User: Fold these one by one.
Assistant:
Number 1:
Amino acid sequence: MAGRKSRKKAEPKKYMPATDKVILLLVAHADDTEFLAGGTVAKFAGEGWEIFEVIATDNQRGSFDLPAKQLIKDSEAEALAAGKILGKKDVIFLRYPDGMLRDYRLNHLREKFIKLIRTYKPRIVFTFDPWAPFEPHPDHQMVAQAAVEAIGFSQNPKFYPEHFKKGLKPHLVAEVYYFAKANVHADTIIDISNFIDQKIEALCAHDSQMKLTIDEMKLALQANKVAPKTTASLDRNNYRGVIDLMVKMYCGEIGKKAGYQFAEAFRYELAGGEIVKAIKDMGLE
Ligand SMILES: [Zn+2]
């Protein structure tokens, strides 16, 4: 995974999964997975799942100081490094302009996602929850809506039959884990106590994004006139301690709800919903 040579172009041609333990992460930005599901991804990777991440944008606006070209290059290298730490098998970069996904039609992105689902054949997809409230980022909103529709239609051969000429087949995603900043509909808490250090390590691999996180936190503290001395001492080049503290606070709060030290929360969906759950519970052969 490391290095430029192994980077994938926008549309991988063929992928044959070794097992059905395949996960596809559909996200907008280089660090989305690490922030929202890093511990869970590390946990699944440890259980032998093959994990692929699709990053829809090129991250060119994720910094106050770096030029766009530099940022595109750096953020991809950072995403690959973070992927390695969490045990992802590969990262696919779609490279749409950061912050501008809305300039593209929803159906355009949906078709890309359906093609990727049919290519990687995931049992599980992780993505943004389109029905979680208070999501201000348009790229997150676009990915969420395109992803939920792609998950809904990828098994239907009437959608984009041109895919089948290239050897792809319809594919049903069996399980979905939705994440969100304000995950008020979360119904599934995953214990990541043993993976919190891996999550923090992977987040800190996103050097450009962690510097931005400190820059934005500083602005917010200044705007609210909170803790001026502490704010002045925040150093964007030395973010490790702050990120460690933030992540442990955030994941600690989620963990409390289920009696875990650290956790991540998701809204979980099973294909077939309540009927499948009921039949599963009946224990039928
Ligand atoms: Zn994002």
Number 2:
Amino acid sequence: MKESKKSDSDDDWVLPGDKIAVIEEFLPDETCYEQDGGIYSKIFGRVVTDTKRHKITVIPKNPHRSIKNGDLGIGRVEFMKKQIASINIYYLNQENLMIPISAILHVSEASRRFVKNMYEVARPGDWIRFRIIRAAKPVYVSLIGDGLGVVISYCIQCGHELKFKRRNTLECPNCDTIQPRITSKYFGKPLIRNLRPSRNETR
Ligand SMILES: [Zn+2]
């Protein structure tokens, strides 16, 4: 097992899912998990151990960088209620965050026009482009502004990726349903599609 040190050798870097220790040696903290007697990293970062206290942790490559009001980000809708949606921010100012930051979107920040409820805005699993309007926790985002809104979306009936039909209206090429979303002008654009983290490919 590596001792804690501040070298830049590649050995120190681990990816999510990498085995970093065995359970007899260390107690995992919130950056790692135990499985079948092994300790595995949850994040991309550097392993640091404290052998005296039997502690092990992974320091993220990008620790929570500072968020500022007005920053632009891309994230995924995790769950929603009528008035609010919970978002995981994966990109901030085009930088890939190793640990997503959770944020809230309120229906009043979905569009300049009146939107009755969140189900007209986005659905869980959709990717949205937004602006940070409250950088302190809890972080709040807004879809009001140029180029903001849903950029990747999935059918609520069959899960197929939706195609753009017209502004704020998407169509499922698989089951032909028409579904409302607040769409960004970047909806389905290659630039946005390439930003999608690989964990989403299994959807
Ligand atoms: Zn469908």
